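Exercise 3.2. Students should predict the tertiary structure of the chain below and write it as structure tokens, then compare their answer with the key that follows.

Predict this chain's 3D structure.
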Amino acid sequence: MATQDNVIQTQADQKLQAEFNEWAAAGRGDDMEDHHSDITNQTIELMDIQSGDRILDLGCGTGWASRRLAAIANRGEVVGVDVADEMLRRAANASSSFPNVRYVWGSAENIPAPDSSFEKVLSVESFYYYADQGKALDELRRVMAPGARLFILINLYRDNHYSLRWVSELKVAVHALSEAEYLALLTKHGFENVEARRIPDRSPTPEVYSGKWFRNADELRDFKRIGALLLLASKPK
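Answer key:
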């Protein structure tokens, strides 16, 4: 993993690092795989990954999606980037059997990779945490090869009203943009072939819901039916 020596962190990144190191220590990084497995698998199918692709997993957490990507791009390379060093430590420990995966510390506004490094980029459930989403998109465009494809998957967005319940509960600031606002943002920052899709969560729903976010199982089913927002875009050739 990359060290943080001589790296200047923004205050927002410091808050994210502290919060998600706590998540990692509490095992919540591993929970993300259970919560987002189906929508991520559907997204990976749409990525049309080739065996030699170079792929960035931005906000990789404990690396569960990185490993899924690496199993397909078996002659390529997957680079997982995260601001939480404890997440990365756990990701590296869980990925010893994947020689084509490596994890490096970095932020969305300072990705530790040369220009034009990746043919595909995946970001699962992290983009709404980035303090300056425009700068993050500029940085992604920098590290993407000409014609490379970007896939941003998020459950928290304005058009799914259930997800807005999380905003006041999280300890770090988040963006809750609409689908239309995200499409405009991607276009503004130089991407083309910009589109959005809804990815319904097809995972089983218990008959009785006992969590804190939904009043009952019917609300959870409706949340899953509305689905996650998948943003797709290309860097111009």
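Discussion points: The mean pLDDT is 93. The chain is about 35% helix and 20% strand.
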